[in-house]
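Lab meeting, item 3. Inverse folding demo.
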């Protein structure tokens, strides 16, 4: 479900000048999505994931990023800017 009451999506027109699909394709942003339903199941509601712990994902991404940066240190000391 997309919140169409946003300045960057206006005007929303119906009837002969229907423009919802072009507005979504060309102007909508990920932050406009409020609720996502997949196979009849709500996976995101009120912009909150229902089946994923976002804090755990952020912590895991941070840990992995640090590990990747540590692994590239030897290359930087050789003058390679990787």
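The presenter then showed the designed sequence:
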């Amino acid at each position: 479900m997309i919140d169409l009451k946003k300045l960057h999506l206006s005007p929303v027109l119906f009837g002969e000048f229907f423009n919802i699909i072009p507005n979504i394709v060309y102007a909508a942003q990920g932050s406009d999505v409020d609720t996502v339903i997949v196979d009849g199941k709500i996976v995101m509601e009120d912009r909150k994931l229902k089946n994923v712990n976002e804090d755990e994902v952020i912590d895991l991404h941070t840990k992995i990023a640090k590990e990747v940066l540590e692994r590239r240190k030897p290359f930087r000391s050789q003058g390679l800017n990787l």
